[in-house]
Amino acid sequence: MQQQGFGFEDIGHEAKDEGAAQQQTPRPPITLIPGYLNQAQQGALIDEAEHYPFSRPALTLFGRTHPIPRRQVWFGDDGCDYLYSGLFIRAEPWPKYALRLRQKLQRDFGLVSNGVLVNHYRDGSDTMGWHSDDEAEIVPGSDIASVTLGASRSFFLRHTQSNTKVELMLNSGDLLIMHWPMQSSWQHALPKRAKVTQPRLNLTYRHLIPHFHQG
Ligand SMILES: O=C(O)CCC(=O)C(=O)O
């Protein structure tokens, strides 16, 4: 399939006025494809997620331990366990529709992945703090595909050197591809939104070096 989306340069940016400023303002290497999944595909994944083995593990930061402000599960191929923010997550076997979406991403964009992190946000009080997906087990050169289902939420990107911030609205069915090497110079976050009362699911497909944690 031809890529139907558009690069970031097409969706407007705070530095569109002055040529000089435009040249200096960093832009995240992303592609946003609104409505990538149709209603039936979205519904199949949302229904399937009702049976996912979600958990809410605790993270220790500055000596204090708190459960993460969302629920999550990691599905992956054999040997594709994931370690992030000090949390070791063993890969669960792939459910049918999460696997189909992995195959669709590979067919449509050549986007290779062997694991997906699914986050479930109950409403706008559940969040994801600033971070980069830059774990050592991620295959260098690989892109990360992020698919949104359910409630629309604002998603922020922040350039670590210049502090340039970019806000995107992610709606149900949208696909955001974060291209290599975005994670080395940009962070991303999903802030609280008091007015959001509906749940949201997010699936980020990643390509890991298999058996990285067994060597
Ligand atoms: O829910 C989102 O859109 C963000 C998820 C995310 O940042 C991640 O999985 O690393």
Structure, described:
The protein is globular. The chain has four helices and 15 strands. The protein has one domain (28-52, 71-209): Alpha-ketoglutarate-dependent dioxygenase AlkB-like (Jelly Rolls, Sandwich). By secondary structure, it is an alpha+beta fold. The strands form four sheets. The protein has a seven-stranded antiparallel β-sheet, covered by helices on one side. The chain has a four-stranded antiparallel β-sheet with strand order 9-14-11-12. The protein has helices spanning 19-24, 39-49, 96-109, 182-185; strands spanning 6-7, 30-33, 58-61, 64-67, 71-76, 82-84, 87-89, 115-121, 128-131, 144-150, 153-159, 165-170, 175-178, 186-190, 200-206. 2-oxoglutaric acid (AKG) is lined by residues 117, 119, 128, 133, 146, 155, 188, 190, 202, 204.
SSE layout and pairing:
Blueprint: E1 6-7, H1 19-24, E2 30-33, H2 39-49, E3 58-61, E4 64-67, E5 71-76, E6 82-84, E7 87-89, H3 96-109, E8 115-121, E9 128-131, E10 144-150, E11 153-159, E12 165-170, E13 175-178, H4 182-185, E14 186-190, E15 200-206
Antiparallel strand pairs: 1-2, 2-13, 3-4, 5-8, 6-7, 8-15, 9-14, 10-13, 10-15, 11-12, 11-14
2-oxoglutaric acid binds next to β8, β14 and β15.
User: Compounds present?
Assistant: 2-oxoglutaric acid
| Major beta-sheet overview | 7 strands, antiparallel
Strand content: 25-35%
Count of helical stretches: 4
Q: Return Rg in Å.
A: 17 Å
Number of domains: 1
CATH class: Mainly Beta
InterPro entries: AlkB-like, AlkB-like_sf, ALKBH2, Oxoglu/Fe-dep_dioxygenase_dom
GO molecular function, one term: ferrous iron binding
Protein name: DNA-N1-methyladenine dioxygenase
Cofactor: Fe(2+)
